[in-house]
Amino acid sequence: MTVRPLVFFILLFSSSIGAKAQLTNAIFSVTDFSKEISAVEITVNNFVFTIDKSGNIVSFNSQTDGDYDYYTNDLFGNRNGKLKSIGSTNVDYWTNDLTGSKNGKLKSVGDIDIDYYTNDIFGNREGKLKSIGKISVDYWTNDVIGSRDGKFKSIGNINIDYWTNDIFNTRDGKVKTIGNIDIDYWTNDFRGSRLGKIKSIKGNSATVYAVRGQY
């Protein structure tokens, strides 16, 4: 787990989640030729979590100042050397998880609890991120014909879908919609250099935003 600077410009809005008001937005990274969302950054309270295409939290960043402290002498908890706190905010990790799919992964940042799928081998979600606070994360399962199996299906109330049955136009399996955002790609441009590349991203808002990423 690493802490890194923000990759994308963060636009915040306030929403009520649980008993406390939290600042939340989602920024999705899509690329020309990938058939998956490359990364998602969601802001919860004053923390930005980066989720990769495999459903792992690869980094998180604090938007507030504070000293960083790290775990020491925690060999049995698999936390030794990992980030322990940012200022007054404590950070913890899953330990002694008998399923083995959560061990060592981020468990909480302050009062934000984080969980992962377990016992979901046939659904291809085993060990993937399930929730950050009250924000649930789900993935397409049992969709072999539609080329969506294992990909992001929803994050909170943001539904995600992909182009299907579009093999000849090079869009099959690529990201089609993210909430109210529509994404299209160049087709039938064999003489040019645009074939398969992103043609348009329409419908971005201050709360849900898609950008052409670098992943």
Number of helices: 0
Number of domains: 1
**What ranges have pLDDT less than 50 throughout 5 or more consecutive residues?**
2-21
Strand order of the largest sheet: 7-8-9-10-11-12-13-14-15-16-17-18
**Assembly category:** single chain
Structural class: mainly beta
* CA-based gyration radius: 19 Å
Strand content: 35-45%
Q: Helix content range of the residues, please?
A: under 10%
What can be said about this structure in brief?
The chain has strands spanning 14-17, 20-23, 26-30, 39-44, 47-52, 57-62, 68-70, 83-86, 89-93, 106-109, 112-116, 129-132, 135-139, 152-155, 158-162, 175-178, 181-185, 198-202, 208-212. It has 215 residues and is mainly β. It has one domain (14-212).
Q: Please, could you describe this protein's structure?
A:
The protein has one domain (14-212). The two termini are 18 Å apart. The chain is globular and about 60 Å long. Strand 10 and strand 11 (112-116) form a beta hairpin. The protein is an all-beta fold. The chain contains no helices and 19 strands. 0% of the residues lie in helices and 41% in strands. The chain has strands at 14-17, 20-23, 26-30, 39-44, 47-52, 57-62, 68-70, 83-86, 89-93, 106-109, 112-116, 129-132, 135-139, 152-155, 158-162, 175-178, 181-185, 198-202, 208-212. It has a twelve-stranded antiparallel sheet, with no helix packed on it. It has a five-stranded mixed sheet with strand order 6-5-4-3-19, with no helix packed on it. It has a two-stranded antiparallel ribbon with strand order 1-2.
